Amino acid sequence: VSSPCSPWGAPLSTVTPCSLSDVMSEELAKELQQQEDTAAFPNVAFVGEGGETSSDLLLAQMLQMEFDREYDAQLRREENKLNGDSKVSISFENYRMVHPFEDSESSEDEVDWQDTYHDPYRADKQSNASKRGFVGKGKDITTKHDEVMCGRKNTARMENFAPEFQVGDGIGMDLKLSNRVFNALKQHSISEQRRSAKLHEKKEHSTSEQAVDTKTRLLLYKMVNVGLLENVNGCISTGKESVVLHGNGGRINEHIVPSECAIKVFKTTLNEFKTRDKYIKDDNRFKDRFGKLNPRKIIRLWAEKEMHNLMRMQKAGICCPEVVVLKKHVLVMSFIGQDQVPAPKLKDVKLNSEDMKLAYFQVLDMMQQLYKECNLVHADLSEYNLLWHMRKVWLIDVSQSVAPTHPHGLKFLFRDCKNVSQFFQKAGVADALNERELFNLVTSLDIKAENEVDFIVEVRTFFGNLVPRLGGSTVFQSTGKDSSHLLLLILQGIDRVVE
């Protein structure tokens, strides 16, 4: 009796009964095995069943091939199971038992240049030579030392160079590189990698032009966070020793910071200003600390030197930026200018005759105050370090300024006098003194000479005759130093000027 069919259920399928003899049939087992092998190796022709097996060698070969087929089928199943739908596939092709009648299923696009089996420049693939290199009996032997084969191998090895090293498509052009050329390219690739690493290191740990490194940015962020600065607007000037940024001031310790500030960031490398050590190693204020510091910490000492020089000049009443704060190699000062526009340099500003004459006499007074009251020599005074703002000359960049007792102090002073005299004489100031007269005016001496060489000789003779009878000369009373010691140091400076 058939049961009633449910309207929601699937129709009953009729199952064909199978006898036990059919299930245990050997023909059915062979058919299922053949279907499985055909699915695993669709392009492989298997050995027939009805072959001659009277020979033991042939029988052994057939059994070995059957074992290899089963082993390869197992590898293929494991490979498919591991790969699945993954984009990155694993291949067991190198472990397969490949027979002469089986075609290689490896893709031409997946060529490993280190695998000699797939090397497109193998001698046996380029010609009819055998694997041992014999072209024929009595013919030449092709080995790895063959010039053509070696050249093609070198071209294939270029793929192992660094990714940023462009090698082109040498394989497509059948390019042949000699060992000498390949070794030169390989060495160049290694050198380029090292140079790139050094440039990256330098970029991360140094202050480059119009930009600052990570540590400097962190210092600026801290200044903004504590309220010292409201914001940092950008770069306004660059030089061989520093980068100057513009910022808006805030408050620090209940003191109001100027509304516009100049943030001077000293470069943390000595590449662009390698001669700065001569300005600081012989300075008595920093002489003991200079020899114990590495080049990076010397930059902080250089910034500290400018801070002390500015404070000394400001105390004497010289027009210069006002120091706000110093943090490592970052010096915050008052901004000379207005509305983020810096005051023009004396070199760039166009002044009439009256203003130019006014500027000249201001510079003369500034040099005398700097020498006599501040006990300093600017050492880099020129129209590039003098600003014109509100009809006044402002002095900047005093990090290299030294005391007159410095061994090079007289040399630097004479160079400053020469730069100032030449600029104002070219600007048309009729009252401009030459460098020798200006030198006498600043040092309160009265040495007369017609040319520079005679002037230096007379200065040397004057101080040489003064040594035996030197007591408390008024020339050196303003320095507060021992007169004889100062005189000997100045004479050393004169010797260097003559050289």
What do you see in this structure?
Residues 201-444 form the RIO kinase domain. It is found in: Cytoplasm. The chain is α+β, with helices and mostly antiparallel strands. Among the domains are: 140-203, no CATH class; 210-342, Phosphorylase Kinase, domain 1, CATH 3.30.200.20; 343-465, Orthogonal Bundle (Transferase(Phosphotransferase), domain 1). It has helices spanning 20-23, 26-40, 56-83, 123-126, 147-157, 179-205, 214-225, 287-290, 295-316, 353-372, 409-426, 435-443, 452-466, 483-498, and strands spanning 229-238, 242-249, 251-252, 255-256, 260-266, 323-327, 330-334, 337-338, 341-342, 386-389, 392-395. Strands 1-2-5-7-6 form a five-stranded antiparallel beta sheet, sandwiched between helices. It has a two-stranded antiparallel sheet with strand order 3-4. A two-stranded antiparallel ribbon has the order 8-9. The radius of gyration is 44 Å and the shape is elongated.
